[in-house]
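ok so i was messing around last nite and threw this chain in just to see what happens. nothing serious, just curious
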Amino acid sequence: MPLKFFLKLYARLAGLTALVILLCVVLFVGINSVRSQFWHERFSEPLMRWLASSPAPEQQYHWLISQYDFRATGPSELMLSEVIRERLGYNQVVAVEASLGYRFLITGFHGEVLQFRASEPYRDIAVASAQILRVHLDAAGPEGREEAVERLAAGLNVTVLRVQGPDSLPDDEVLERVYNRGSAFYHDNGEGRVLVQLADGELIQVILPAPFNPWAWPVVLLLLVVSGSILALSLILVLRRLDSNLRKVESVAVRIARGEMGARVEAGEGTIVSRLAAAFNGMAEHIQRLVNVQREMIHAVSHELRTPVARIRFGVQMIEDCQGQEALQKQLDGIDGDIQELDELIDEILTYARLEQGGPVFSLEEASVTDIVNQVVEEQQRIRPALSIESEIDEDTEHLAMADVEPRYIHRAIQNLVGNAGRYATGKVLVRCHIDEDHCRVDVEDDGPGIPEDEWEKVFTAFARLDDSRTRTSGGYGLGLSIVRRILYWHNGQAFVSKSDSLGGARFSLVWPRKKPLEPGF
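result:
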């Protein structure tokens, strides 16, 4: 990946991440400020309405004055906004955030405004509710305690439990505070609880609703939806740009299909499809080179055809000047050889063209690969008696000789390799055949000069001959190895060249699957 593209993509992702985080923080703070206001008013509402229902709350709950600045004030004495005054007029509980906590306001029994200050609203309201409950339970006495518990629990919106065994007691630190102060606030499983000791020594546990949770699931869901929407919008923008770049590639592909071989994709550096554009341009250049190679091949074919045709024409002309039967027969034999050479060349060209343009419809059948190898060796030994052409086949291979092949084309491939090896060998050609359960392999080695390693791929190119000679004795037309590679391609195999370790010359290898793959569904 190009460094410029990586840095640009990284910067954009970092900017998008920062934007999403900033927006989520703004939403989180804004939404929770409203939720917090609403929660504080709902949480304090039971206590404030309980206080407002008393005709004289300052006398009845006088200890609240010193602890929570509890007081009753006339509406005109407080500097309140019109909205707060209107809400108090509707008998709503109003929570006003101050520098040191919250002020809770409600209209009292006689129309006055009751004010309750809490530096820590959750704890202070819990403790105040528990103290009010203790006063009323002490006043009710043991006989009316059950009824009072029900009434107070409903009025203050708390759950009241009587501690009846050591298992329900909190830890020693909480109990110590209860014995010293008469009550203690603590948390248990995320809930606020107040343990109260009544006048007769009974312990009462007051359980409050859950505290304010800024990470409630609606808030988290909203943040996820917002984040997902921003990412989706960003993805749409990226895909639109990607689609625009891909349309450029598509347009160039259409132009190349129309014959404009010089068309190229213009994509700036650092774009998401710059590598695709570079690869496409490389492919277009390769196609253009192939077209040029095709033209060169046509030129080479015309040259190869022209040579034997010219010799045939010259031989025919010479027949008229022949004196005697022996001279005439010599010219006829030469013409016959030229015609045979021309026929071989045409056969090579047609075979290569048929394989290169999609190949024949192979009808694979089970045949003995070792028999094909032995047949080629025998044929080539008769043609080249001066050479030693041998086959080397082990016993295991003989047992697995049957394979799925197209016998005529495999014969042609091995024949081309052995003939090519015999053309360059000094005295020996060795054909090794090895077959296992999965693959067939045929190696043809010679003791000739070999092939330089940097030419190993070039020898499989059509009309490629390392000596660039085009005489009759040069050794073929440069199509034999190309045909071999295409035959192996249609057998799902490979053909490659290397150096012979045993003979020192070239080693051509054919490798292909022993059995054709099963059709889908079998």
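not much to say yet. The radius of gyration is 50 Å.
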